[in-house]
Design goal:
By secondary structure, the chain is of the alpha+beta class. The protein has two domains: about 120 residues, SH3 type barrels, CATH 2.30.30.230; about 300 residues, Fumarylacetoacetate hydrolase, domain 2, CATH 3.90.850.10. Strand 1 and strand 2 form a beta hairpin. The chain starts with about 30 loop residues before the first strand and ends with a strand. Bound molecules: manganese (II) ion. Manganese (II) ion binds next to loops. The site of manganese (II) ion (MN) has 7 residues, from loops.
């Protein structure tokens, strides 16, 4: 499951000097995949790999003859405008290309000269959503988020009785998944004002964030044939950061009885670089131990490997920069921080559950983890939790206060992994600004 190989060796250095900086998200041990082109050009979108502050243009590298065999075939597939064809090739192809990239990017590599001509500075690049996402489902895997939210809606019964048995999720919308850096307008919708008996239509007054991770499916499954938990990881290509923007005043009026709809599907932002599950292998950990009086997972959601190392220790944080802060030149300020390791359900359990009825996943499908709030309130990953439903505003360093987001507020998500004996790897950032509602 968490097989380490030479690509994870923390002593590896790259001839791309910026990759060797201690604070780089993209050292040679990471090698995340994305879709890019030079900003402001009509160049074709194509696949690349982040290394330091550069991008390896995989189609160009393939054309330059840098790769051989299975890695060459994989790099050729990355010349498309989405990663779907590469994802569909499966784990052996992903690993072959990762290993080849690791070797040609190492200090002293004979191919350095040829590959140097295939680098594009990240500062000159723009990004697309890295996969053509056919379907998107959003889960609810943090029991702390589910409890915090549930307490606001149902003080006596915060956690629904199904929560500890079933990885709860709903089908989301793919067309409005956008890439980091693309701003969006505050949504309008129906809301029921406090005390009112009829709804009003207008801009949302309770714009919120949800810090999540997005799990990208590599290889799918045939309709009718579930993916067993023991095979789930082999179907997962990798992860990005995900901000599941939420309109908290539209949500309560519309969500019963069929679940979230327009409160969620106006924009969902992903970071451009997919960090592969292979790159994350050093950061496998055991999921939280379930209390003895909690139900244990049903057999299809349980395996020794999942119990031993089904979770991932990914550090996560949310930063806010208001319009006033930006004008004053103030850096974004941290609102909250947590780790993915606290999730009640693992990504393997998400995949196994999603397909348990025979539902077919396809290359490029995206599964949201749900808001990844940690065990304490200062690790909550949505403003509705941090401010206890808007009752306790957050005070920022410049004295401004927020319950929900104002127009001009910019939210930045960051994620990274670090521990002694392994290279620190990061996700880059997932950022967007809330623009005023359109007239
Ligand atoms: Mn969500």
């Amino acid at each position: 499951m968490s097989t380490l190989n030479e690509t994870h060796d923390p002593s590896l250095k790259s001839w791309v000097e910026s990759a060797n900086r201690e604070d780089s998200d993209f050292p040679i041990q990471n090698l995340p995949f994305g879709i890019f082109r030079r900003r402001g050009t009509a160049e074709a979108w194509r696949g690349g790999v982040a290394i330091g502050d550069q991008i390896v243009d995989l189609a160009a590298a393939h054309a330059a003859g840098v790769f051989e065999g299975e890695a060459a075939a994989a790099a050729q597939a990355c010349g498309d405008s989405s990663l779907n064809r590469f994802m569909a090739l499966g784990p052996a192809a992903w690993s072959a290309l990762r290993l080849a990239l690791s070797r040609v990017l190492r200090q002293g590599a004979a191919q350095a000269g040829a590959l140097r001509a295939c680098l594009v500075p990240q500062a000159e690049a723009e990004y697309s959503v890295p996969a053509k996402i056919g379907d998107y489902a959003d889960f609810y895997t943090s029991i702390h988020h589910a409890t915090n939210i549930g307490r606001q809606f149902r003080p006596d019964n915060p956690l629904m009785p199904n929560y500890k048995w079933i990885p709860i999720g709903y089908h989301g919308r793919s067309s409005s998944i956008i890439v980091s850096g693309r701003d969006f307008h505050r949504p309008k919708g129906q809301t029921l004002p406090p005390g009112a008996t009829a709804p009003v239509f207008g801009p949302s007054k309770k714009m919120d964030i949800e810090l999540e991770l997005a799990v990208f499916i590599g290889t799918g499954n045939e309709l009718g044939h579930p993916i067993p938990l023991t095979d789930a990881d082999a179907h997962v290509f990798g992860l990005t950061l995900l901000n599941d923007w939420s309109a908290r005043d539209i949500q309560p009026w519309e969500y019963q009885p069929l679940g979230p709809f327009l409160s969620k599907n106006f924009a969902s932002t992903v970071s451009p670089w997919i960090v592969t599950l292979e790159a994350l292998a050093p950061y496998r950990v055991a999921p939280p131990t379930r209390p003895a009086d909690d139900p244990q997972p049903l057999p299809y959601l349980d395996s020794p490997a999942n119990r031993a190392e089904g979770a991932l220790d990914i550090q996560l944080e949310v930063l806010l920069q208001t319009g006033r802060m930006r004008q004053a030149g103030d850096a974004p300020t941290r609102l909250t921080a947590t780790s993915y390791r606290h999730a009640y359900w693992t990504l393997g359990q998400m995949v196994a559950h999603h397909t348990a009825n025979g539902c077919n996943l396809q290359p490029g499908d995206m599964l949201g983890t749900g808001t990844l709030s940690g065990p304490t309130l200062d690790q909550a990953c949505a403003l509705i939790e941090l401010t206890v439903g808007g009752k306790n505003p957050v005070t920022l360093p410049n004295g401004e206060q927020r319950t929900f987001l104002d127009d001009g507020d910019r939210i930045v998500l960051r994620g990274w992994c670090e521990k002694p004996g392994a290279a620190r790897i990061g996700f880059g950032e997932c950022a967007a600004t809330v623009l005023p509602a359109l007239a």
